[in-house]
Specification:
The chain has a domain at 46-145: Conserved Hypothetical Protein Mth637, Chain: A, CATH 3.30.1200. Strands 3, 4, 5, 6, 7 and 8 form a six-stranded mixed β-sheet that branches. The chain has a two-stranded parallel sheet with strand order 1-2. With 146 residues, the chain is an alpha/beta fold. 22% of the residues lie in helices and 25% in strands. InterPro entries: DUF167, YggU-like_sf. Pfam families: DUF167 (PF02594).
Length: 146
Amino acid sequence: MYCAKTGSKFLNILTTSSVITTSMSKKASKKGKSQKEPDVTPKVFEPICLDKSKHILIHILAKPGAKQNSITDITEEGVGVQINAPPAEGEANTELVKYISSVLGVRKGDVSLEKGFKSRQKTIKVLSDTTSLDQVKEKINAEMKR
């Protein structure tokens, strides 16, 4: 499985099928014999995954200017988060980091904005020594159900 938008592999690495090519003479290839096609499995994207250094990445679809901070939904593209701050001068980014750290119960310094400083599609990095991937998923799902 691959992490959404970053292309980094999950901790549970799937084995990819190797491409087997057979050498055929030019005469055989002209006769219409085709080579074996490799099995193509679609990539599965997850909004909460691990990066190469085993830190937790959360892909966020930010919705700034809301009345209150809340997690709205979890889709393949990311975790929908409403932010109670305007999208100007980095106020929404700061509020997003504060909100995610409070939801996960970790220090604000353990959560950082990795990508998407000027976009609504953001990537948050959480240091893996403070919490696990399963705990992050559980806490985000619990917050969404509120």
